[in-house]
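Quick start: what a row looks like.
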Amino acid sequence: MLTVITGASGHIGINLIENLKAVNRRIRAVTHKNNSVLAGLGTELVAADVLDPDSLIRAFKGAEVVYHLAAHISILMDEWEQCRKLNIEGTRNVINACRQVGVKRLVHFSSIHALSQHPLDAVLDESRQFVKSNRCPPYDRSKAEAEKMVRQAIDNGMNAIIINPTGILGPNDYQPSLFGEALINMATGKYPILISGGFDWVDVRDVVEGAIRAEQQSPPGAAYLLSGHYVSVRDMAKMAAGILGKRSTQLICPMGPARLCAPAVTAVAKMIGRRPLFTSASLNALVCNQNISHARAAQELGYNPRPIEVTLKDTLTWFKEHGYLRT
């Protein structure tokens, strides 16, 4: 069975390839800019761009399953156009290409950020409404619009399913991801001050296993929220430092003052050529719902995310073994 993956060189993509190879899938990895990490995986590589419909048609030809992972991941408030193009227009092109070449099943990776976090005191599950306000980060709004598009395609007869993971950590994070970089900085004390708040963190290996089970056995239109465990930033830093044999001594800044400082800190990061991690959008994510339910996935897929302590240990060990983490 030929399975095509867009965004194959990303954190989820690399882990997905490893798991699909274990079940003897023939894999075609769609690459756009970065394919160096894919070179040694024994996977067919094809150059394509989600903004180029013809290239997608060529890439999807003969495929029975397409996993759509490609996206512009952003924690900046001024990147609506980039998010709109890659996340909305790109998804539209993927849907159309799947239809044109007769792909039997599309697995669309959405995000927890597509769903409204409020009300914070109510359980957040697959029934939660999409984010709507223009005050929400561009990434959140674009992922919501893309998921709506997939749901409309399902209503029109497309065999597709939707996966909404929370904050992903885990091994094989080559770039590294935004969350991976933040974890490295927390673990090594590069953040002298931490922000109050937290997030729901999930292991990439659990997300990939859940997505594959859903692809194999779920009916068209199924959607699964693949969450893990809520952990505060302070506790995350303590656990990470402890794994490295260190002591977390960072101070905690309340959210109010942090929000006031975020625009200036983001501007400085841009000026010196660093990827901004401390932004208004990233702070917005830390004021999140602490009751994100994966009950549907547990019941229908046997989904059971591993303890966060295991994820942190394995992730930091991988970063250290691959030269990303020097202690």
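That is the whole record. Residues 80-101 form the longest helix (22 residues). The two ends are 44 Å apart (CA to CA).
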